[in-house]
Amino acid sequence: xxxxxxxxxxxxxxxxxxxxxxxxxxxxxxxxxxxxxxxxxxxxxxxxxxxxxxxxxxxxxxxxxxxxxxxxxxxxxxxxxxxxxxxxxxxxxxxxxxxxxxxxxxxxxxxxxxxxxxxxxxxxxxxxxxxxxxxxxxxxxxxxxxxxxxxxxxxxxxxxxxxxxxxxxxxxxxxxxxxxxxxxxxxxxxxxxxxxxxxxxxxxxxxxxxxxxxxxxxxxxxxxxxxxxxxxxxxxxxxxxxxxxxxxxxxxxxxxxxxxxxxxxxxxxxxxxxxxxxxxxxxxxxxxxxxxxxxxxxxxxxxxxxxxxxxxxxxxxxxxxxxxxxxxxxxxxxxxxxxxxxxxxxxxxxxxxxxxxxxxxxxxxxxxxxxxxxxxxxxxxxxxxxxxxxxxxxxxxxxxxxxxxxxxxxxxxxxxxxxxxxxxxxxxxxxxxxxxxxxxxxxxxx
Length: 446
Fold this sequence. Notes:
With 446 residues, the chain is of the alpha/beta class. The chain contains 21 helices and ten strands. The protein has two domains: 4-354, Radical SAM ThiC family, central domain (TIM Barrel, Alpha-Beta Barrel); 360-444, no CATH class. Helix content is 52%, strand content 8%. It has an eight-stranded parallel barrel, surrounded by six helices. The protein has a two-stranded antiparallel ribbon with strand order 1-2. Helix 17 (376-382) packs antiparallel against helix 18. The longest helix is centred in the C-terminal third of the chain and has 21 residues, at 334-354.
């Protein structure tokens, strides 16, 4: 079997590339050329059946939602509900971060239900089934192969957490140390065994497993900053330099690669962080975790993540991992998942407008025409969260009226329409406008 990147290098346009091009409103050749260069990835394990989704340069910014049971809270039915909510809210990808028991069964069920990209972090399986540091390289590689055979589309693999990059981190006076769960597990294992990270030491073998099933690498940022004070320090940069080298090695072996980016970054350093990753990793798609622009808003971190995500997207980030209001506090519930996806979709779309992604601005212009016409059903239909928009309007004192309860009879748009737009002209313009909304609505997935 040839992978997407191998097909693209031969000049082939696969069905997956064609599907991505159709959904993005771009030429199939653009997608093929991006995949060939490695600036676009299509995480799509042949064993997982869903319509392919592309991530990378020239495409709309994608949104990932993390779900997963834990050893303290392990109800599969809740995770299935979260999966469905995330997809219904517009997530393009879901990551199963489950820890605890029965992880194979959880993954099988999620794959069967998941109609978008599905990712995992294999180190959680061996660290869950054993103690934190008493796993072996053989067990880790076996878990990776098992998950690839199950149909996982991409895997976060912390191959850049090496003995040297951890040493560099320890030379920095970090406030929060290693905050990545996977990064801390690998660092603890290396400290106990005195051995090198097997994902780095046996990277070619790792590539062969992922290539066989066309699983996309998400080279994890295990030394990412978990506090503003730690952003862009020696540990983070040392790991990034390793990831740049591994990106080239993985592509040479026929694997697709994206890079995970930082978590907590001051707002004035986000653009530089994005540009640095793109430079060091040869334009590989960047998957950012937030980034969060302040450390002091627990309970509202979906907002801090959206602020950072919008700036990162506009600067060239390709994939935003959502942050929920529960971040730093507890496992997210179903409402947290919904709030996190919507906030992150707002960030992604805002960034797409800034970098002029095809069709992005058309969605906003269509909404503006509906607002000018005071066409509430049209506004609901184009809203990012149609149910909430409809509920807010219909439950207000102006529920059945043409205006809203904010301005009532002093609605500026209503006044302006009556003053400067004769009713017959307005009606004809609205009809013509609605015909023009089709492409924007399709591009927005509404």
